[in-house]
Design a protein that fits this description.
Blueprint lengths: L5 E4 L5 H8 L3 E4 L5 H8 L4 E4 L7 H6 L5 E4 L9 H6 L3 E3 L6 H17 L1 H9 L18 E5 L3 H12 L3 E5 L10 E3 L3 H7 L2 E4 L13 H4 L7 E4 L8 H9 L5 E4 L19 E3 L8 H19 L15 H8 L8
Parallel strand pairs: 1-2, 1-3, 3-4, 4-5, 6-7, 6-9, 7-8, 9-10, 10-11, 11-12
Helix pairs in contact: 1-11, 5-7
The protein binds nicotinamide-adenine-dinucleotide (NAD).
């Protein structure tokens, strides 16, 4: 008798991904994103699909004695202990290329909403403050300078969209060469913060980028400039950002990600009308969710049918023999 393999899913994924899984494996959808819940369920799972909130640390991975793959929807794998999973020979995969332009569109929406004061004007009409139209805070975006930190997939897509809006773009990324002719690359982070009208963060969370944007760089920004973060919350020192906003030393911010998610109701960032907040949705649209769920489900099915899945993020931590086997698999691709 063949046993049916089980897949733990931390939060619902799009139905297209569910359809790929449903006739091949048994799905265990977690009722919530708490660690205790993951610990209670993971022992039965042959693979897991995670969204951003649930953490797979050593305890959870240890409890998942049968786990063969942990697949993260989207890019960020910072909620998984890559090294520990790798040493156990468990694939940790992500789904790159499924929401880069989706994130970039969200950043463009933030640039536009900050420039055109969309949220503030909406509130003004509802509060019978029609006179707001006589004190326009709105700005054009054409010819404004966008500073991009991290020129990977979302950074490049954002640069591309914004140059097409007539914005000028400057970028900082010490690890890549800029392929876009309309984008100027600088090796000085200071230049980005001191000259840009919008600074948009597009880096992963690493020991170097952790709390990268603190008082030092915020103090360099022009009083008319805004900070945008749709990458990872821990890149920004939130206390320093709150101080900069309170002192009006920057004009505003648009934040999709936070040091702690969900953002608590009494968090000081909630109080600023010049701050636009969204609940970590920059990469989520109907279309991107379909692409992400399809890719995540396929990685699980590939693994459970003995194939090497795409987009493995922790191969370097694998035992040498298993790593060599993957690298010599004719179907394995680094892309
Ligand atoms: N808010 C969302 O819904 C959402 C959706 C997708 C991605 N993200 C996050 O956005 C971030 C970027 O995603 P991506 O797909 O563009 O990643 P990517 O890997 O394609 O690009 C990241 C870039 O950051 C650069 N970088 C690394 N350290 C840097 C540093 N110290 N200074 C400057 N640049 C540095 C890298 O060289 C790379 O080019 C990731 O953290 C990802 O998790 C968020």
């Amino acid at each position: 008798m063949t046993t049916i393999q089980k897949v733990f899913i931390s939060e619902p994924i799009d139905e297209r991904g569910m359809a790929i899984l449903s006739d091949k494996v048994e799905v265990m959808l977690a009722p919530d994103t708490r660690k205790e819940t993951a610990l209670a369920l993971i022992g039965d799972a042959d693979a897991a699909i995670l969204r951003a909130t649930t953490r797979f640390d050593r305890d959870v991975i240890c409890a998942g004695a049968k786990l063969q793959a942990i697949v993260r929807t989207g890019i960020g794998v910072d909620n998984v202990d890559l090294e520990f999973a790798g040493k156990k020979g468990i694939y940790v995969c992500n789904t790159p290329g499924t929401n880069d332009e989706t994130v970039a569109e969200h950043v463009v929406a933030m640039v536009m909403a900050l420039s055109k004061q969309v949220i503030r004007m909406d509130r003004a009409v509802r509060a019978q403050q029609w006179h707001e139209r006589f004190s326009p805070r709105q700005r054009d975006v054409k010819n404004k300078l966008l500073g991009i930190i991290g020129l990977g997939k979302t950074g490049l897509a954002t640069a591309h969209f914004c140059t097409n809006l007539g914005m000028k773009v400057i970028a900082y990324d010490p690890y890549v060469a800029n392929p876009l002719p309309d984008v100027r690359q600088t090796d000085r982070l200071e230049e980005i913060f001191s000259t840009a009208d919008f600074v948009s963060l597009h880096c992963p969370s690493t020991p170097i980028t952790h709390k990268m944007v603190g008082q030092q760089y915020l103090a360099m920004m022009k009083p008319s400039a805004c900070l945008i973060n749709a990458s990872r919350g821990d890149l920004v020192e939130e206390e320093a950002l709150v101080q900069a906003l309170a002192a009006d030393s920057i004009a505003g911010a648009a934040l999709d990600v936070f040091e702690q998610e969900p953002l608590r109701a009494d968090h000081p960032l909630m109080a600023f009308p010049q701050v636009i907040l969204s609940p970590h949705v920059a990469g989520s649209t109907k279309e991107s969710n379909e692409r992400i769920a399809t890719a995540a489900a396929q990685a699980v099915i590939d693994t459970l049918t003995g194939l090497v899945p795409k987009h493995i993020c922790n191969l370097d931590f694998f035992p040498a023999d298993k790593k060599a086997k993957v690298l010599h698999d004719p179907k394995y691709s680094f892309s």
